[in-house]
Structure formats: structure tokens, C-alpha cells
Design a protein that fits this description.
Blueprint lengths: L5 H15 L9 H20 L9 H16 L6 H30 L7
Helix pairs in contact: 1-2, 1-4, 2-3
């Protein structure tokens, strides 16, 4: 999963947290689960951006179908509140670290401080 970039890198890191806290299924390998998420994500994006994709489903039905697919891939489970709070704190930390790295990279590319007003 280390080769992932962007949103897939974020999802891969979050998947580790969710799996560690028994929030999602673990009967698939993390790599298989991340791949399935990527395939669904790319497919969903394609349906939104390509005129050649045909569907009679309205927006609500498309959203429900996507949600059902993700729930099936992740195997979302009920999680006790203390575990959920811990997992959320870890997820927020991951997002903060990735945002910080992105700001640093933007600074390198632009030659200025992205955090400056």
C-alpha cells in the first residue's frame, strides 16, 4: 500500500486504523480491501465524468448503490463508543500529518510558505 498517492494513500492509512479497531472486515487482506475501494472509487468517478456511461438511476439511487458497495467492501460494524473515539483521533492525526506533508510539498514547489496569510 506504500505506493499509493493522494486519496488512496489516505484511504489506505485509514483502513489500517479501521481494521485495528475492528470497525471493518478483516477476512480480506488490507491490500485487497484497498484495491476494491480504489476500483469502486475510480468507477464512481468515471460515471460522474464520462458521458459514455449510461444509467437510468437517479442521484439518490446512485448514492445508495455506492454506499451499499462500500459497506460490503468494508464490512462496516457497530463499534463501541470508546473504540470509535480512539479510531477517530487516530484518523484525524493521519489526516493532519498528510495535510502537513502536502503543505510542505507545496512550499517546495512554489517557493513560498503556504501557511503564511
Amino acid at each position: 500500500m506504500a505506493r499509493n498517492q493522494g486519496m488512496m494513500a489516505l484511504l489506505s492509512h485509514l483502513l489500517v486504523v479501521w481494521r485495528a479497531h475492528q470497525m471493518v472486515r478483516t477476512d480480506w487482506s488490507a491490500e485487497e480491501q484497498a484495491y476494491a475501494l480504489q476500483v469502486v472509487g475510480v468507477g464512481f468517478q468515471e460515471t460522474l465524468t464520462r458521458w459514455s456511461v449510461f444509467s437510468d438511476l437517479d442521484e439518490e439511487a446512485r448514492s445508495a448503490t455506492l454506499s451499499a458497495s462500500l459497506i460490503e467492501i468494508l464490512g462496516v460494524r457497530d463499534v463501541p463508543e470508546p473504540d470509535l473515539r480512539t479510531a477517530v483521533a487516530e484518523a484525524v492525526h493521519i489526516i493532519e500529518v498528510m495535510c502537513s506533508r502536502l503543505r510542505e510539498r507545496m512550499d517546495e514547489l512554489t517557493g513560498h510558505d503556504a501557511t503564511a496569510g
